[in-house]
Amino acid sequence: MQANPQIIQLLNKVLTYKLTSINQFFLHARMFGNWGFEALNKACYKKSIQDMKQADALIERILFLEGLPNLQALGALRIGEKSQEMLSCNLGFITDQVPLLRQAIAICEAQQDYVSRDLLHTLIEYEEEHIDWLEAQLYQIGEMGIEKYLQSKLSEDD
């Protein structure tokens, strides 16, 4: 099934975000783990794996639409050097991709590509949940201070 080239181009843009996100969240996970913050390590690692699964779904969809997935394009990683900066970088990265997802959903709807629309809708739902989680982490830092916050992230239970 051949799709509108605009849809394939948009799906590839979303794929670029996902591929970049995999790397950013994976590196942040390993940095958190290296510093002993297992709860943050686990959360970032889980996000990188989920992004990998979402990238896989996008690749499958692009191929189904007889497009060529672009795995060579990667965006700039936003890597923090301290824990709060890393969380802020992750929040900014995700927040920046939401408008693209909304635009892609609208175009898929207009082009009556409901399968791609639904795929993108599941992606935006996950990203919005992660935005909420990151905002909660930054709020906690503001309320309890970075030292107490990080102490609470030493175990995986959080």
Strand tally, please? 0
Poorly predicted ranges (pLDDT <50, ≥5 residues)? none
- State the share of residues found in helices, binned by percent: over 70%
- Tertiary shape: elongated
Beta-strand residue percentage: under 5%
What number is the mean pLDDT? Answer: 95
Q: How would a crystallographer describe the biggest sheet? A: none
Cα end-to-end separation:
45 Å
Structural class: mainly alpha
Distinct helical segment count = 5
SSE string, helices as H and strands as E: HHHHH
**Rg (CA only):** 17 Å
What does this structure look like?
With 158 residues, this protein is mostly helical. Helices cover 78% and strands 0% of the residues. α2 packs antiparallel against α4 (114-144).
Key features?
single chain, 158 residues, mainly alpha
Indicate the topology.
Layout: H1 5-34, H2 38-64, H3 83-110, H4 114-144, H5 146-152
Short characterization:
It is built from 5 helices and no strands. With 158 residues, the chain is mainly alpha-helical. GO terms for molecular function: ferroxidase activity.
